[in-house]
Write a structure and sequence with these properties.
This protein is α+β, with helices and mostly antiparallel strands. Helix content is 61%, strand content 11%.
Length: 664
């Protein structure tokens, strides 16, 4: 009976979303606060209905109700409780319900936001309700997670063992908070086009939503990358997989949106550009949903769904994005701004930044979609992988990163390039020294890697010297510097932290990618394997029993080839899951050595030439791999710090509105 309640709540939420869209639209047309309030209330009620449905689905997984098809296909009585709960969103139907929950929750937050003009808020609620209605209809009528089985099986098929991991338990909710959060930016953009109001105040209203979504998406992507790094056992952290790219495209568009919204808020310029990016960010999110759920991709990250449902998702994408872009084209002539700025100014730097970020997103989209389009049109198969993205994407991002530290030191309207460069001269000197050091110490044959090291240092110290310049450090008495530091807006601290985090990530990615070492061979007990400055010795292999698996566990001693570094012991496992088809997974042994990782993978059992039992072992030395995941953490922290700035609070009403021509 409880399952039927969940199905009823899902259908009810669809009706409430349709009602919310109708009431809000009617309230906007009649300028009726009563009707507009009814629309907002209906959207809040829809949120509660979806929450009830999602709670029922989780309960069905927790109690192993195998009369529900979704539970029978994705759960098992022996599965730990954490993975029973996460199994609710570890499949197409459940994850789509999570998508609907996040979308209606963001809509509810929009309905409760204070300070927005009546017309803009009511139109945005109507658009958000319409989006929610489309996705809830897709979930309720084509992908209902509450479909019954009769007769019910005694046991379920379990969740994919690769997804039975703590990082993957929380990765989808965080990713969806970013993906779907951009729907509010989309709704505000469409509402602004309807109201013919894209001004500095609108730029301030859209920024916190974009920033919150970007922060969640950053954490979600980083967590998924870390899972792929330590769970899949291939030794890498990014494969340019189409599903990885599906989350990266809205991240790039969101980053461009944040920078563009600053110009719109401060100067009233780039209004059309900001609206277009707000529409694009969520369009990329919907495109990612289509790629993952349409069945056009084969990936460990993708849901296997039939093409018919993929066509319905494509229809939603075409209706939502196509309608918004058509309205944008219609309103484009009205989005011109009277604000002017010189070619050398903060606005110009942000425009260049946006151009390169948007071009980078376009290259990722081309590399992701071109093989699919070619196969669909001609049947030919082509692979677009790492060489393409390194040759096309990396140069664009490199130029954007070179320009990034100079923007905050430029004045609005008319800047001084020479002055900005002079204030960053020490950062430039450190970057050059870092590049030369990388060239000489690592490998003179890898000049591009040395440039990447210098670029990372340029971003880190550029952010540092920006803060020092703002606080007048070393130029004013210590008490004055401290006073300025305390008075520096949280948004400025957050921006510097995010830019520095990007530099940290680049350092880690460049060094790990360029100078990692990998070795592998069969080891008998007592044999050794060396990679770079580290070696491992296979000490013991035994059988261990987990809650729902059996594992062959190898214990390996990690020791330095030279020097006196402490020896450590790591374990690597091959796990066999009897439920769900008897799948086998690999558990990596990780030894953290400062910024470096010693990465050990034990493979299948074999025999030596002498007939002794042996196991194939791969050893990776991944220098500075810690920075790859520390960088995004700092970027997300910077975004979170910026969100605490009262000027960016959603619904803040006490912020003085600047005139378009005012200086920051």
């Amino acid at each position: 009976m409880l399952v039927e309640l969940g199905s009823f709540a899902l259908i009810l939420s669809f009706g409430l979303s349709v009602l919310a869209a109708a009431m809000a639209s009617l309230g906007r047309l009649r300028r009726s606060p009563v009707l507009a309030g009814a629309g907002a209330g209906a959207l809040l009620a829809s949120t509660m209905a979806v929450a009830v449905a999602f709670g029922v689905l989780i309960w069905a997984f927790v109690v192993s109700d195998f009369s529900v098809s979704n539970v029978a296909l994705n759960s098992h009585t022996d599965k730990p409780l954490l993975y029973k709960v996460s199994g609710a969103w570890g499949n197409h139907e459940g994850s789509l319900l999570l998508w609907c929950l996040v979308m209606t929750a963001f809509g509810g937050a929009l309905a409760l936001a204070r300070g927005l003009p009546f017309g803009l808020k009511t139109s945005a609620v109507a658009v958000q309700s319409g989006l929610s209605a489309m996705f809830i209809a897709f979930a309720a009528f084509t992908s209902n997670p509450f479909v019954r089985l009769n007769p019910a099986p005694v046991q379920g098929q379990s969740l994919n063992p690769l997804l039975q991991d703590p990082a993957l338990a929380i990765h989808p909710p965080l990713l969806y908070l970013g993906y779907v959060g951009f729907s509010v930016c989309f709704s505000l953009a469409v509402a602004a086009l309807i109201e013919k109001r894209v001004d500095p105040a609108w730029g301030r209203w859209v920024r916190p939503w974009a920033l919150a979504s970007w922060v969640f998406l950053t954490v979600g992507i980083a967590l998924g990358s870390f899972w792929a790094y330590y769970e899949l056992g291939w030794g890498g952290w990014w494969f340019w997989d189409p599903v990885e790219n599906a989350s990266f495209m809205p991240w790039l568009a969101g980053a461009a949106l944040l920078h563009s919204a600053i110009v719109t808020e401060r100067r009233g310029a780039l209004a059309g550009w900001t609206v277009f990016l707000a529409i694009s960010a969520f369009t990329f999110s919907m495109l990612g949903a289509f790629l993952v759920r349409s069945g056009v991709l084969t990936s460990v990250h993708a849901f296997a769904v039939d093409p018919e449902r993929g066509l319905m998702l494509l229809a939603i994408l075409a209706l939502a994005a196509g309608g918004a872009l058509a309205l944008f084209a219609l309103r484009a002539p009205t989005l011109k701004s009277s604000a002017t700025f010189a070619p050398i100014s903060r606005e110009a730097m942000l425009v260049l930044n946006n151009l390169f970020l948007t071009a980078a997103a376009a290259t990722v989209m081309l590399g992701t979609l071109y093989p699919l389009l070619l196969k669909g049109l001609t049947g030919a198969t082509i692979s677009v992988g790492e060489p393409y993205f390194h040759a096309v994407f990396s140069p664009l991002m490199a130029v954007a990163c070179v320009l990034l530290p100079m923007g905050p030191l430029m004045a609005w309207k008319r800047g001084d390039l020479t002055g900005a460069v002079q204030r960053l001269r020490f950062a430039a000197l450190i970057a050059v020294v870092a590049a030369i050091g990388g060239y000489l110490l690592f490998d003179p044959k890898k000049a591009l890697a040395a440039f990447g090291i210098g670029l990372g240092a340029w971003l880190i110290f550029g952010a540092l010297f920006e803060v020092l310049e703002r606080t007048r450090a070393f130029k004013a008495p210590l008490a004055e510097t401290a006073r300025r530091a305390r008075g520096l807006p949280l948004g400025a601290w957050g921006m510097a932290l995010a830019h520095a985090g990007l530099g940290v990530f680049i350092l880690g990615a460049v060094v790990e990618t360029s100078f990692k070492v990998e070795q592998g061979r069969a080891l008998a007990i007592g044999d050794q394997l060396q990679a770079g400055p580290w070696q491992v010795t296979l000490e013991e292999v035994k059988i261990v029993e987990g809650p729902n698996y059996l594992a062959e566990q190898g214990r390996l001693r990690v020791s330095p080839v030279q020097g006196r570094a402490a020896e450590k012991t790591v374990t690597s496992e091959r796990r066999f899951f009897p439920a769900g088809g008897g799948k086998t997974t690999t558990e990596v042994g990780l030894d953290f050595r400062g910024l470096d990782d010693v990465y050990v993978v034990m493979g299948e059992r074999t025999r030596t030439d002498a007939g002794e039992p042996a196991w194939f072992v791969r050893l990776h030395y991944n220098p500075w791999a810690r920075l790859i995941f520390l960088g995004p953490a700092l970027m997300a922290l910077g975004g979170a710090v910026s969100l605490l700035d009262r000027r960016l609070r959603i619904g803040a009403t006490g912020t003085r509105r600047r005139k378009p021509e005012a200086k920051a």
